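User: Second chain of the day. Same drill as before.
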Amino acid sequence: MPTQKGVRAAARLARPGGLAPAAALVLVLSLAACGARQTPAPNPMNTTTAAELFERGLRARDTGDTARAEQYIVAALERGYPADPGAVTLLEVCIESDRYDTALHYGRTFLVDRPDDWRLRYLVATLHSALGEHRRALEQAEQVIELQPDFAPAHMLVARVADGGLERPRLARRSWRRYLRLDPTGPHAADARRYLRRRRGGRP
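Assistant: Same format as last time:
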C-alpha cells in the first residue's frame, strides 16, 4: 500500500507538466453608512477570472493554506479553468493535507467527463491503493495501462497491489517484469529485482 510519500510521488507523476493548487471564496458584506441597513457589497468573484482564481489558489498553496487553495481551485474550475492541469492540481492539494478520501472523490468525479485522462486515472488508482481498496486500485491501474501501455509506474502499481493486497503472485511477477523492461533503472527497479529473486524462477 502506498505511503503518504508514495501518494505524493504519484501526484507528481500525474502532472502533465507541472501542477498547481486552489483556495477559498469570501462573500463580503458591508454597511452603506453608519446606522444604515446592511446591504451586500458587489461580489468580487463576479469580476474575478478563472485564471486569477487559479493563481490565488497557487499562492495559497505556496503559503501552506491548502484549505483556501482547494476552494480557489474549485471556484476556478467552476468558472471554466481547464481541467488539465486543474483537476490533478486539486487532487494534489488534498493529498498534501492528507485528505485522501476528498482527493479520491474529486478524482472519480472528474473521470466521469474525462475517462481517457490516464494521468488522472493513475492518481485515482494510487489513492484507492493508499486507502486499502486494492481491487478498485487494480481496476483503475489496468485501465491506465490500456490507455498508456508504456507508462511504467502503472505496472509498478499493479505489481504492488497484486502482491500486497490481492495475493496474486503471477500477476505481480508479470507486472514487475514489464516494469523493468520499460524502466530498468527506474526508482522501483531494485524492488522489482528483489521481488523476482525471491520467487522461484523469477528473473528480472
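The longest helix spans residues 83-96.

User: Great, on to the next one.
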